[in-house]
Amino acid sequence: MRLRFRLRTPVRALVLLLLAAGSAAITAGSLVYFGEDLAPFVVEKLPLPLEDVWMLALRVHVVAAAICLPGCVALTLGVVIRRRRLHRWLGRVTAAAALLALVPSGLYLAWFAKGGLPSTVGFTLSGAIVAAGMIQGIRTARARRFVEHRRWVLHVLAQLGVAVASRAMLFGFDAAGVDEQLAYLVSLWLPVAGGFGLVELLSTRTRTRTAPSTRRTHEAPVDARPADLLPYDLRRAHGG
Amino acid sequence: MLALLICSRTTFAEPTAASGAAPATPTAEARAAEALVSRDLVQPLAVRETKASRFSRARMPAQERRVRILDDHASKDAQGNGFVRFSIDARYGFHSAEAEAPWRLDTITGCAYLDRSQVFVKKGDEYRPAAFLLGKNARAAADTTCQPERAAVAHAS
Question: What range does the domain containing B85 cover?
Answer without folding.
Answer: 27-51+61-92+100-156
